[in-house]
Design goal:
4-stranded antiparallel beta sheet; 14 helices; globular; alpha/beta; Aspartate Aminotransferase, domain 1; 7-stranded mixed beta sheet; single chain; 2 domains; Aspartate Aminotransferase, domain 2
Length: about 350
């Protein structure tokens, strides 16, 4: 006998990347975390947390954080909704907008598989539109699917490609429902879809502090859309979905753009070096606009290589699913971590 709803009983849950114990010495390149610590201003803010901040409920609208985002991105503060990570906002959007076959969730594949998981939780009908091998944007197919929500990750994970702004604009013009542009990795790319929020009532842009700001453990993200749409989403949001410490630390992080940008510059340089080194070892590596690369080993033995690296204390991400099962997604680490990875791969491939 099952005590849960039939869709929960039947679904497969989302599987996060492996999390080794802190201090284990394992090189962790499997979850696209920032290899550098957060801004010193964030640490200072943490040390200055007052007990009163913990005793009282937090601001349900995270207004101090929204003001900081407003000043950095040049959008009105009341166009911002804050979540417990951008995943919280993805969940909120699905709960508010998606349903059965008349209100499906649409997205191109391969992409962030949490979209599929959230649809199964609702439950909602899903239309998965395949990306072609060159990751050309399947605009006509996405429009034809008539989604209540169309999720577009740009830069996309695991491929690392960026969807042209002109394609996103056309999608917003022609889509039946919301177009949600998931910009979790935008700090590592050039350009953004943020301008589309001003042009269209049906566009939501999502951001996170997990990647560019080195705050994956804090769980803080935000969405940008016009206030009329946010008013509907606020009906679905948990009253206090973001804690007071996250609001304070996230505000400090947003106000230190110089530190964030310096870390981004290092990661971009390391991404280029890592891509070149893997290609020299015979890997096929897509050009990436994220803090990771998608690499195909010369023999296509991705699972074997993933397991061999794990035995040597290096974690990368392997997806056992069609079109990805011959590839590895590798997060960009520090220079030392990247060099250790390349040395290990060189040993393993030469031994085979």
């Amino acid at each position: 006998m099952s005590y849960v709803r039939p869709n929960i009983d039947a679904m497969a849950g989302y599987v996060p990347g492996e999390q080794p114990r802190p201090g284990s010495g394992i090189i962790k390149l499997n979850s696209n975390e920032n290899p550098y610590p957060p801004s010193p201003n964030v640490i200072k803010a943490l040390r200055q947390v007052e007990p009163e901040l913990l005793r009282r409920y937090p601001d349900p609208f995270a207004r101090s954080f929204c003001q900081a985002v407003s000043e950095v991105l040049g959008v009105p503060a009341d166009w911002i909704i804050v979540g417990n990570g951008s995943d919280d906002l993805l969940n909120l959007l699905v709960r508010a907008c998606a349903d059965d076959a008349a209100r499906p969730i649409v997205y191109p594949m391969p992409t962030y598989v949490l979209y599929r998981t959230l649809a199964a939780l609702q439950p909602a009908t899903v239309v998965e539109v395949p990306y072609p091998d060159d990751f050309r944007f399947p605009l006509k197919e996405l429009v034809a699917a008539q989604g209540a929500i169309t999720f577009i990750a740009s830069p996309n994970s695991p491929s690392g490609h960026v969807v042209p702004l002109s394609d996103l604009r056309t999608l917003a013009q022609q889509a039946a429902g919301l177009v949600v542009v998931d910009e979790a990795y935008v700090d590592f790319a050039e350009g953004s879809a943020l301008a589309l929020v001003q042009e269209f009532d049906n566009v939501v842009v999502l951001r996170t502090l997990s990647k560019g700001y080195g705050l994956a453990g804090l769980r803080l993200g935000f969405g940008i859309a016009k206030p009329a749409l946010l008013a509907e989403l606020f009906k679905v949001k948990d009253s206090y979905n973001v804690d007071a410490i996250a609001i304070a630390l996230g505000t400090a992080a947003m106000r230190d753009q110089a530190y964030k940008n310096a870390c981004i510059a290092k990661i971009k340089a390391s991404r280029s070096a890592l891509t070149q080194a893997l290609r020299q070892l015979g890997f096929t590596v897509l050009d990436s606009h994220g803090n990771f690369v998608l690499a195909t080993p010369p023999q296509g033995n991705a699972e074997q290589l993933y397991l061999a690296l794990k035995e040597q204390g290096i974690l990368v991400r392997y997806f056992k699913q069609p079109r990805l099962d011959d590839k590895l997604r590798i997060s960009v680490g520090t220079e030392e971590q990247n060099q250790a990875l390349i040395a290990a791969i060189a040993r393993l491939t030469s031994a085979s």
